[in-house]
UniProtKB/TrEMBL annotation:
Compartments reported by the entry: Endomembrane system
Protein species of origin: Chitinophaga ginsengisegetis
Pfam families: PEMT (PF04191)
TM stretches of this protein: 6-23, 39-58, 73-92, 113-133, 139-157
Membrane topology: Multi-pass membrane protein
GO cellular component, as recorded: endomembrane system
The UniProt record lists the keyword Transmembrane helix: yes
This protein's name: Protein-S-isoprenylcysteine O-methyltransferase Ste14
Keywords linked to the UniProt accession: Membrane, Methyltransferase, Transferase, Transmembrane, Transmembrane helix
Gene3D superfamilies: 1.20.120.1630
GO molecular function: methyltransferase activity
GO BP annotations, alphabetical order: methylation
Length: 187
């Protein structure tokens, strides 16, 4: 692993840890909903499958592209994902938490990135995991890290959408009809 990879991986992981620590919904006025263990599930999946992916990528040679270009592409995708995630968090503002939580005076965000995607923060995070897999330049390593993390995030999105549908009813179900989950106009 080169120095640039180390710096980007470290910045990415550190940003996620800080988000987890700082942006937990702790306000006394929040109406907290059970996330059915989805946050813990996501973290377990991430830790387990990143490590397996790194080991498999180091021990096998299923190159995506020969040479260092795929590492650079992957690192760029990680950074793009981080930017998307931070922009989504900034646009959601005080309504963003890492917990599935309905805040006091909560409303459905329908402008900015949220006019196209229901979960742009998750889209950014998943883009970073895709970049991580690509940066290893190993098809098997990419599949091992991305597929389980994607499945864990879909599980989380379903829980979150259920909570929001229960809270906002037809307003949220109508919003769902006019937006994609994480890939514009596709999914």
């Amino acid at each position: 692993m080169n120095v640039l990879s180390t710096i980007i991986y470290f910045a990415w992981f550190l940003s996620e840890i800080l988000l987890h620590r700082i942006l937990r919904g702790k306000d006394a006025d929040d109406k907290k909903k059970q996330d059915q263990g989805s946050l813990a599930f996501i973290w377990i999946v991430i830790i387990v499958f990143i490590n397996i992916s790194v080991l498999v990528s180091a021990k096998t040679s299923y190159l995506i592209l020969p040479g260092p270009d795929m590492n650079r592409i992957g690192l760029s995708v990680i950074l793009l994902g981080m930017v998307l995630r931070f922009v989504a968090i900034a646009q959601l503002g005080r309504l963003f938490t890492v917990n599935v939580t309905i805040r006091k005076d909560h409303h459905i965000k329908k402008d900015g990135l949220y006019s196209i995607l229901r979960h742009p923060s998750y889209a950014g995070s998943l883009l970073s995991f895709l970049g991580f897999g690509l940066s290893q330049n190993n098809w098997l390593g990419l599949a091992i890290v991305f597929i389980p993390v994607f499945v864990a995030f879909v599980y989380r999105m379903k829980i979150e959408e259920k909570v929001l549908s229960e809270k906002f009813g037809e307003e949220y179900t109508d919003y769902m009809k006019h937006t994609s989950r994480i890939i514009p106009w596709i999914y």
